[in-house]
Amino acid sequence: MNTTDPTAPAITYADSGVDTAAGDRAVELMKEAVAATHGPQVLGGIGAFAGLVDVSALKDYQRPLLASSTDGVGTKIAIAREMDIHDTIGRDLVGMVVDDIIVVGAAPLAMTDYIACGQVVPERVADIVRGIAEGCQLAGCALVGGETAEHPGLMAPEDYDVAGAAVGVVEADQLLGPDRVRHGDVVIGMDASGLHSNGFSLVRAVIAAQGLALDTHVDDFGRSLGQELLEPTRIYTADLLAVLGDERSQGAIHALSHVTGGGLAANLARVMPRGLAARVDRSTWEPASVFAQMSRWGSVPQLDLEGTLNMGIGMVALVGADQADSVLAVLAERGLGARVIGEVIGEDALPEPGTPLEQVITGAKGVEGGAVLLASQHPGWA
Question: Structurally, how many domains does the chain consist of?
Answer without folding.
Answer: 2
